[in-house]
Structures are given as structure tokens and as C-alpha cells.
Amino acid sequence: MKLEVHEESVMRPESVRCPSCNLVQFKSEKCRRCKTSLVFQVLKEEQPEIPRESVDRSRDFQKCIGANVRRLRKQKSMTQDNVVERTGMKRTYMSKVENGRLEPTLNSLFRLADALEVDVIELFSSERELMTERLLADPFIAEAARLTEAQQVQVLGFARQLAGAK
Hints:
The chain contains 8 helices and 2 strands, in the order E-E-H-H-H-H-H-H-H-H. With 166 residues, it is mainly alpha-helical. It folds into 3 domains: 8-46, no CATH class; 52-125, Orthogonal Bundle (434 Repressor (Amino-terminal Domain)); 129-165.
């Protein structure tokens, strides 16, 4: 009795179709019916190609988080050991996060934020974003940011004249 499969929807992720005899079967090295090698098909399905841009963005993300964790830790005058005590993480894990060699889990990010006494979003922010946020918190700078471009040029020109007059 032959098993014939007519619909592709019947195939499950753990099954493959033999390219020679079209037999649908569980993943294995060789086809049960014709003994054709199925290793290539299995490897191809299990390891989809990851776009290069995605890998680069992931590394940038890791480095950004690591740099922020280190910066915030040093701002609070804490050592890695202090953070490790507060989070329950291993010191090697903490080191890999700070050096951008490991992408921390969501749970780890929340534990790090708690240990550093910051909001978790600060672990994702770049230094430039944080500086902009701090500058805009100043009422004078916030008002200057609302000026038109022509008004900003006038104010900066006036400020330069005052600085040069001294």
C-alpha cells in the first residue's frame, strides 16, 4: 500500500519530500523508498540564511546596550561585582553584555535596569539621545529649540558677539 500525499499543507515542519521519488517522510539522512540522500534538504530547511543587515543591526544593538550599561554603572560608581550582586547574574555574563558580545534577554535587561536604578529605556538610548533629552530639559534651550531657523541664527550671532566682546 503506497502513501500518496497530494496537498502541500499536509507536510509538517519535521517532514521532507524526497526530490527523486516525492515521498513525504520524517527528516532523515536517506529516503526510505529510494535511498536518495536527504541531508541537503534537511540542512537547507533548518538553517535559513540571515540577511547581513540584520546581523549588523543586532551587533550594533548589543554594543549600544553594553555601552549604556557600562556608562550607567560608572555614573553610579558601581563595580561589575556590585551589579552582579544586585541582579543575580554571573560576572562573565555581565562582562559579555558590557563588551557587546552578548545580547541580553528581556528579563536580564529589566534586572540590569533595576540594579542601576534607571528606567529600562535608558539601556536602549544612545548617548546623543540622552544628551538631547537633558539639553531640552533646560527651559532656555527648550525655548531656543522652538525658534525658527532665522531666529536661531540671530540668537547665535548675538551670543558670539557677546562672547567675543569680553
